[in-house]
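Priority: low. Protein: Oxidoreductase. Input follows.
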Amino acid sequence: MPSKNRNCFNPCEFPYSLFPCAFPCAPPDPVKPIDPTKFDYIVIGAGTAGGVIAKELTDDKSTSVLVLEAGTNMTNELSNPSILATINTTRGNRFSFNVTSELESTIARTLIATNGRTIGGSSEISDMYAVRGSKELYNQWASLVGDQWSYDKISSLFIKNETYTGSTQDPNERGTQGPIFIRQQSIPPTGLINTLVQATNTVLGTPIAVDYNTGIRDCTFYKTQYIQKEVSPGQFVRSSTATGYLNDQIVSKGNQSNPDEFGVDGRKLVILAKTTVNKILFKKKDGLNIAVGVEFVKDGVSHRRFARKGIIVSAGFFSSVILQRSGIGKSDDLAKAGIPTLIESPNVGHNLQTQNYIGLGVEIDTSQILPIFFTDPNYPLILGAFQAENPMNLLESRRLQLIGAPLPFFLPASDVISNGWSLDLTFQTTPSIMSFGMVDVKTKSRGTVLVEHSDPEAYPSLNFNPLEDPNDLTYMVDQYKRIYNIIVEARDPLKYPNNGIGKVVYPPESILQLPDNDPNKQQQLENYVKASYTNFSLGGQCRMGQTIQEGVVDGFLNVFGTQNLKVADLSISPILPDGQPSAAAQMIGLNTVRFIKENPSSYVMTDKELEDYENEIKKT
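Result:
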């Protein structure tokens, strides 16, 4: 066990102190202290994917890994399983980075990208909605960059990642011994839930599935799945990379005063918290750019650490920015920030994809939703569905994700306030307002995340370019019409007596009732799409490709133009996962470790080479 004195680490217990100190006893012969400046691997980011990589690489107790993380351990503060509590935690900068976009001309306002600023990354602040993604999605990845991403090759990683406690139509597809806990909603499929699921099945033609996380694409389901662990009957806590892969069985637990964490039981893992990475360091050897170190700032002081075998960038939203500060990117982009170009890589920071949702609000008799709320108060969803844009195309992945909530959760805050709609079911009078989120998980518009300055503390320039592709706007208008048809079907008193479903209030039902050939209907619905447009998950700004003209990394996540450098997080997605992506990010982490173990680096740096390089750059 680690010493309680965090200012001095006994090498009998921690063989990897980063700071000079006196040791009270000599270590036993088998224990060899780790050089505080040299590691086998450096991982930038202890987030959803990076934390997985760090843990898995050090399982052999011989591989040494340094992780550089901007945040600290916040598992106690972020354990609340309530979706509303999650929303509140992301509003400040204590647990997350909130980067404001430039003014988005297509919607006449700015947007915010929220990213986890804590050990565990965005898995610690996500909405906890458990979605793997469809088989078709990963097979599309495979068609673009290689079979190592096909669903058949990566499904075992999803299984390894999870402990699933719900029902399923395909037990062979679900894991039961993994570090990430996934539960199924405890609400019974009766009453309002049954009405909406049956109506969705009728209107969209999506089959009803017990378990949507078995690789299937189009489906409607009664019970949503959440990334949560049951700690006592009916009591749940968040499950995340921090709780599953970087818990106290793996590393010592840091706090605000002593935030760094260290591997336990001989694990050669060091997590330096509250660090800001500046850039990656490269050594020229045999005409190649070999990644050998990282420059970072901690406590206001600049430091360098070095890697013998490789560096993995798992900084999520900031991954492309770190590459750019390191001189990897489009020369025009780098020049604007005063950064010299090391490698001309035109896709770095471009091709940013974002899922987004719009909302539809409906009056509902409060008596219909109170039983749902009290059965599963942390996450009382009333409907879920997925569907491809062209269901007859069997190779196409999902585009629509439909989520129903017994609250005006998906409606603009300004409308909720001005209409007096409540987000607290326990104090509502009838009728209440339920809402439907129509999520476009495969938008066609593309944005950018570009370095603004060589200063590592400077936020990047962000442009989502929402609805820039006309197809995105047309698609969302069509979803308003389709979901309205579900409501009309669900209100049928002969099929669903006493359903309690009232009029649509957002957009007003009077607009939705207009004929489809009425241009006023199209224009008004477009306005409602723009007003309720909300960005969701994002990625793709370091996407995989077969060449540097197509992407930033190859199909094994190696950064084009370099050796010993990978990117491993959602930024590598050629197409975003077709659902909330926490599980996909953890899968990417597991696949990264698979790649490293199956194809170890041909350019392992010796300690002497790293020392010579360090002395060389000290002179410049």
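The first strand starts at residue 38 and ends at 44. The domain at 188-222+353-445+467-532 is CATH 3.30.410.40 (Cholesterol Oxidase; domain 2).
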